[in-house]
Design goal:
This protein has 459 residues and is mostly helical. The chain is 74% helix and 3% strand. A hairpin with a 4-residue loop joins strand 1 and strand 2 (12-16). Helix 3 (51-79) packs across helix 10, helix 10 (223-236) packs across helix 16 (383-410) and helix 14 crosses helix 15 (349-369). The radius of gyration is 21 Å and the shape is globular. Bound molecules: phenylalanine (PHE). Residues 31-32, 34-37, 110, 235-236, 238, 241, 243, 329, 332-333 line the site of phenylalanine.
Length: 459
């Protein structure tokens, strides 16, 4: 069923609902899989020494990410509201709705830098098609990237094109906009990455990259890298700010939230690891610095494509798919803000989308400029790094912590069980484990990693 009319007591509200099981998984996996897996994961793993960081990341995905994801889906579907509305409805007259504001703030910040990085792939599609990478050495390709992000106008224009496309899809609404694209394009991205992995691991000198990825050196784990791994787990799974909560509010009553959680988490993790396998063997084979930072993927992959027949073609296809993966994530970010504007501020969907996208774009422009012509620095970080740090490493884990406490301690266990079991229809074998995780392990683990990561406690 496309639409369900629900009586909210005050008014009849029409709310979009995902029309099929595969559509929900595609949309939620579409939100999770994005630049976080292909751009951010390799570069933070590279900055933090590789394998040991990756192990920690996987540990956080299972122990913290999956229980929080299930909680977000359940809260969203239970309240059928935007992230702010969920807390207002489930805990009226309390301060919990502030978690909603934090989520909306995080969506703003993430989308600001996300749009910039997604815009880079637009430039790279054009460059691939025009043959700009042909016969260029790794050093020249490195230089091209730095030169491009430092120039002011082009990155800003691409970012605006990307934001406009995001807004365009969000105006169309959940079902027509989000579901349709995600269902077809996500599998295609997967195939493309697998091809890249094959090319990369068969390069001469690839072995060192595999060692970097899979042979942990635990002396490289520090409190800051633990916080980075936690932030990356939240960022990659789209958790801690209500994106999956908002999608949860569009999930039908009969769908199995536990199995959706499992599928989305597995898909997201597999793509991140594959991205690592596509990048690091090439990084070492071509003598690129693994701790290169945010440019890592854009500096490495064009070099790999040079080593393939029809490289420019494959390169254009890859960056197009990356762009689409970024789109299916950015729409979930914008949807958090738009759902709030529509439901709480009673704006039309169209106006809400235009206003949100315009405001976020202003921050995005500053973000992009902070990499080059305009120096905006705070706490020793430029505006881009600052937004990335505050959102992924502070707001998302904090949001996740509060969501876990809310589900574990504020809502009654019976209510949450009722939601996850579809009103006792599903038999839940894992419920006991879930409750222990969400009540104790998740809050304690996040608190410890968080406080040590920002230097407030010392082990
Ligand atoms: N998970 C997305 C990615 O990996 C980014 C994202 C973060 C989307 C938070 C929504 C919410 O690219």
């Amino acid at each position: 069923m496309a639409f369900k009319a629900r009586n909210t007591g005050f008014r009849i509200q029409r709310r979009d609902v995902f029309s099929s099981r595969i559509g929900i998984v595609a949309a939620a996996a579409g939100s999770a899989v994005g630049l976080g897996n292909i751009w951010k994961f390799p570069y933070v793993a590279g900055n933090n020494g590789g394998a040991a960081f990756i192990l920690m990341y996987l540990f956080f995905i299972v122990l913290i990410g999956m229980p929080v994801m299930l909680s977000e889906f359940a809260l969203g579907r239970k309240a059928r509201r935007n992230v702010h509305g969920v807390f207002k409805r489930l805990a009226p007259r309390s301060l919990w709705h502030i978690v909603g504001y934090m989520g909306i703030g995080a969506a703003f910040m993430i989308l600001a830098f996300y749009g910039v990085v997604a815009g880079w792939s637009l430039e790279y599609i054009v460059n691939s098609l025009s043959g700009a990478f042909i016969d260029k050495s790794p050093e020249q390709i490195d230089f091209m990237f730095d030169d491009f992000v430092r120039s002011s106008l082009r990155p800003v224009i691409w970012q605006l094109v990307f934001m406009a496309s995001t807004a365009f899809i969000v105006v169309a609404g959940v079902k027509k906009g989000i579901e349709k694209y995600a269902k077809i394009l996500m599998p295609l991205l997967f195939v493309m990455i697998v091809i890249l992995v094959f090319r990369s691991i068969t390069l001469p000198g690839a072995q060192q990259g595999l060692t970097f990825l899979f042979q942990p050196d635990f002396s490289k784990i520090t409190t800051t890298s633990a916080l980075e791994a936690l932030g990356q787990a939240f960022f990659s799974l789209s958790l801690g700010m209500g994106a999956l909560m908002t999608y949860g509010s569009y999930i039908g009553q009969e769908d199995n939230l536990g199995s959706i959680t499992l599928q989305v988490s597995v898909a997201d993790t597999v793509i991140a690891i594959l991205a690592g396998l596509a990048i690091f063997p090439a990084v070492f084979a071509f003598g690129i610095n693994p701790a290169e930072g945010p440019g890592l993927v854009y500096k490495t992959l064009p070099v790999v494509f040079q080593q393939m027949p029809a490289g420019s073609f494959f390169s254009a296809v890859f960056f197009s798919l990356l762009l689409i993966a970024a789109l299916t994530s950015s729409i979930s970010l914008l949807e958090v803000v738009v759902a709030y504007f529509v439901e709480e501020l009673k704006m039309t969907r169209r106006n809400a989308t235009i206003m949100a996208a315009a405001l976020i774009s202003i921050f995005g422009i500053l973000c992009s400029l902070s990499l080059g012509s305009v120096s905006i620095e705070l706490f020793g970080r430029n505006f881009f790094d600052l937004l990335e740090f505050i959102s992924s490493n502070l707001l998302l884990p904090l949001g996740g912590l509060l969501i876990a406490v809310f589900v574990g301690w504020i809502l009654k266990g019976k209510r949450i069980k009722k939601e996850i079991s579809n009103n006792q229809i599903l038999h839940l074998r894992f419920f006991g484990v879930f409750m222990v995780l969400i009540k104790f392990i998740v809050p304690i683990a996040i608190t410890l990693v968080f406080l040590s990561g920002i230097g407030l406690i010392n082990f």
